[in-house]
Amino acid sequence: MRGGSESATASESGTAPAGGAAPVSPRAPAGGAGRLFVVATPIGNLGDVTLRALEVLRSVSLVAAEDTRLTRRLFARHGVATRLVSYHARNAAARGPELLAHLRGGADLALVTDAGTPLVSDPGGELVAAWAAEDGAVVPIPGPSSVLAGLVASGIAGPRWAFEGFLPRSGRERRARLARIGGDPRTTILFEAPGRLAATLGDLAAACGEDRRAAVCRELTKIHEEVRRGSLAELAAAAAGGAIVARGEVVVVIGDDRSGSPGRGVADAAGGGGADDAVARARADVELLVAGGAARGDAARRVAAATGIPRRRLYGAGEAG
Amino acid sequence: MRGGSESATASESGTAPAGGAAPVSPRAPAGGAGRLFVVATPIGNLGDVTLRALEVLRSVSLVAAEDTRLTRRLFARHGVATRLVSYHARNAAARGPELLAHLRGGADLALVTDAGTPLVSDPGGELVAAWAAEDGAVVPIPGPSSVLAGLVASGIAGPRWAFEGFLPRSGRERRARLARIGGDPRTTILFEAPGRLAATLGDLAAACGEDRRAAVCRELTKIHEEVRRGSLAELAAAAAGGAIVARGEVVVVIGDDRSGSPGRGVADAAGGGGADDAVARARADVELLVAGGAARGDAARRVAAATGIPRRRLYGAGEAG
After folding, report:
1. How far apart are CA A298 and CA A131, in angstroms?
2. Taking CB atoms and an 8 Å limit, are B270 and A243 in contact across chains?
3. In this predicted complex, what is the ipTM?
4. DSSP string, A116-144
5. What is the model's pTM?
6. What is the rounded distance in angstroms from the CA atom of residue B235 to the CA atom of residue B198?
7. Which residues have C-beta within 8 Å of that of residue A13, sequence separation ≥ 6?
8. Closest CA to B139 of A149, A47, A159, A269
9. What is the spatial distance between Cα A200 and Cα A211, in angstroms, rounded to a whole number?
10. What are the phi and psi torsion angles at A14 (to 5°)?
11. What digits encode the pLDDT tens for the residues B193-220?
């Protein structure tokens, strides 16, 4: 986010705004209840922790961790001695109410997952949602995320992007999500297990076009950090041929679709959109219509009518990428 | 990212993998060239910087900063004395080649923006892309991002989400992007200027449904951090009525579309998808077809045929949100 001069006016003291529907301030818990700090932790390198994350982890009375063994390693490295309790998908139903009671009692709580920024696909998402629903204070302590580390390392990301998590391993939903990724001109980021990388890259090449640029990021922030860039077809072949080490979870980044707009990169990155972007989006709409069963010519005609973009400019995305 | 036991096996020493198409390791620059460290910096609170970010900023010979005045404040707070050079949209054409020459000469370079994780909408994206194209080492140093801080603070995010940056202020592309957001069942995150918040929330309510859950996050990580949650209609009214302070850029989070699947939340967050998710996606496909000009009944029939989901389950998303 472009912050302007206000972005660095941080301070450790201050008061919260008064009134409002559900104001949340890191310094002013509502009605004496505890604050739920959602703390990002390293994705590999234990040095990737913020000063404030350590301060919060040291100052709260309890830390709920997805994997206490991993979090103990982080604590040992940085001299944190706070009490840890496990909170993961398998004990969330029982442990969640205890954690909410801890917060209601006025004590602060920090939530961490085994790596990166706690998100909603982790069990912590339910806790955050439940505490937010009680108008409790939810305080994000920002830090590492594999999603953004992969996006940055790829060197191929566009200004807008979508995160798709893990694809289902098979079946109709996998096909539907692949089709959706193929029809989206934006950058897509997803996770994959190493043993499934070749199959997924192959499916992505089929869905997005073999020439679509992509990157495969492994072991980000660790010693053997590796980023490979190439077309989806090249990367699929490398993975199938054993040229990509099958160890550690993988972040796959699919570049934005630049087919048909060769000069787009720099101008679009600087300007954040414009005419070429509208064309790319309209083409994606055509692909979605085609994926939904429409004939290509019919789809192009409809989208042309809806957007005012000449129909001939809406062809080509399917072939090229 | 769920890391398992490998996620915390960080170390400060080690060797890089040999061979491969374009391997990049933080410890082994390719061919004696410099490494381009892409360093995340605070989004407000100056304590939101990682130990490794400080280590990198101290150890490189040059830091390219979007706003050297802001970065100097960070440096002063943490005792960093590295030479700074400005690199922003207005001087990128002239400064970019100098920075690439610095890297080619074998010296490391760190890139920072004024706040958060450098992304492609910043001028740095071009530098990263150019260095990656030369097979240069691009090393992400992960840390804060307003996008993820907003996602976490919202308490309403789903397991998959899209980042849309700033919407255009008016015109056809704004309408097209609003329609796309309305047709996407996933969580959407976007930025907005405070003076335009009421208008954008109103447009989002029209595009996504008045009852769609959302959150408005202001001044994240700062003293006056504020998160308001409510329906898009409620938030639009609050912004229009002056109940949301019009200062500081805003992160708007639009929750995933749970209309028609009231029991979905917990099961879906824990299971990461499944049948309800397939229905939500199919409904979004219907909305996209409708947005593209199809009659609703016709759209539902096509999607039902393509997905096998009963047609009656594909109605309702348009009315409810």
Report:
1. 49
2. no
3. 0.75
4. BS--TTSTHHHHHHHHHHTT-EEEEE---
5. 0.76
6. 8
7. A27, B223
8. A149
9. 15
10. 135, 175
11. 999 999 999 999 999 999 999 999 999 9
